[in-house]
Specification:
The structure is a single chain. The protein has 10 helices and 16 strands. The chain is elongated, with a radius of gyration of 22 Å. The protein folds into 2 domains: 159 residues, 3-Layer(aba) Sandwich (Rossmann fold); 122 residues, Elongation Factor Tu (Ef-tu), domain 3, CATH 2.40.30.30. It is of the alpha/beta class. The strands form 4 sheets. It has a 6-stranded parallel beta sheet, with helices on both faces. The protein has a 6-stranded antiparallel β-barrel with strand order 11-12-15-14-13-16. Strands 6-7 form a two-stranded antiparallel sheet.
Length: 313
């Protein structure tokens, strides 16, 4: 998959016959996004044209709520890896800027969709809006599809477990500790990925060494203690207990993902791992003593073992 950050760098020679395009933030790449991507891939192969996912960095919601942005479900790298594995040809991800915020919907269609990407088929969701003040929508695309020589498909919203699938619904489920619902909405366990960094070595001194991963987010969608599975190490899939938060017992300021790998003893600094959140065990707590903390962590480890034993990997 080719990453393009500026419209001038789009591979125009490869787009002469046209392209199949979808647009959105795609945060979390949930079950509803999967329906869009399936349609894009199908149309792309049928028409013999490259598939393009257009997104923005930062996301529009982050741009407009810079002081208090919504919790990001995926880092940019995670989104890129997922789309690449899915088989998308081009990931066009320009910076969301004041100029992008101000663009009129008619200009967005002509300059970006038609002239920039040579879109011949556009796939969007039923709540799709774009351009200045979200003035553009699927009705406008349909009004101009014939004169501008493209077609539009609308993919209906997906309802799972009585909930409309959306990134907001996933965030709500994760914030509520409802990992089962989040997994259903995503179509897979919620995952955080990152490279293991050196921490303050506190866990090692109390018998609970942890693999620490910088969240790479201003806010985390999950907080607390979780039963997890870790992927990416040469030993295969490893069970673990993860803490996401600020370690109140030790007054850590910056939020961190810490994973204690069960029945595992190897230096893993610098390795890139994927952490799948299976179930929430408890809130992050502040303990009066290290002894109380260790006793609680012993219980967390046993709870994680029990939980993971009944959740198939």
């Amino acid at each position: 998959m080719r990453l393009v950050r500026h419209i001038r760098d789009l591979p125009h020679a490869d787009l002469q016959a046209g392209s199949v395009v979808t647009i959105g933030s795609f945060d979390g790449l949930h079950f509803g996004h999967k329906q869009l991507l399936d349609q894009v891939i199908s149309k792309s192969r049928l028409m013999g044209m490259p598939s393009i996912v257009m997104s923005f960095e930062p996301t529009p919601k982050e741009f407009f709520s810079a002081a208090n942005p919504p919790a990001r479900l995926m880092r940019f790298r995670e989104k890129f890896e997922y789309l690449s594995g899915y088989g998308i040809d081009i990931f066009y991800c320009p910076r969301f800027s004041p100029a992008m915020r101000s663009i009129r919907s008619s200009d967005f269609i002509r300059k970006i969709l038609v002239q920039g990407m040579n879109a011949r088929h556009i796939v969007v969701g039923d709540d799709f809006h774009f351009a200045r003040k979200r003035e553009g929508n699927i009705d406008e695309l349909r009004r101009v599809q014939k004169p501008l020589d493209f077609a539009v498909d609308q993919v209906s919203s997906i309802i799972k477990d009585g909930v409309r699938v959306s990134s907001t619904a996933v965030r709500t489920a994760l914030a509520d500790g409802n990992l089962s619902l989040a997994t259903s909405l995503l179509g897979r366990p919620y995952r955080m990925s990152g490279r293991i960094i050196r921490g303050r070595q506190i866990g090692k001194t109390i018998g609970y060494a942890t693999a620490n991963v910088d969240l790479g987010r201003r806010q985390s969608a999950v907080l607390g203690i979780f039963a997890v599975r870790v992927y990416g190490l040469k030993e295969g899939v490893i069970s673990g207990v993860a803490s996401v938060g600020t370690r109140p017992t030790f007054d850590l300021v910056k939020p961190l993902l810490e994973v204690h790998l069960l029945d595992f003893d190897r230096d893993v600094y610098g390795e890139y791992i994927h952490v799948d959140f299976i179930a929430r065990i408890r809130d992050e707590l502040k303990f009066k003593s290290v002894e109380e903390l260790v006793a609680e962590m012993d219980m967390d480890a046993e709870n994680a073992r029990s939980i993971l034993a009944v959740h198939a990997s």
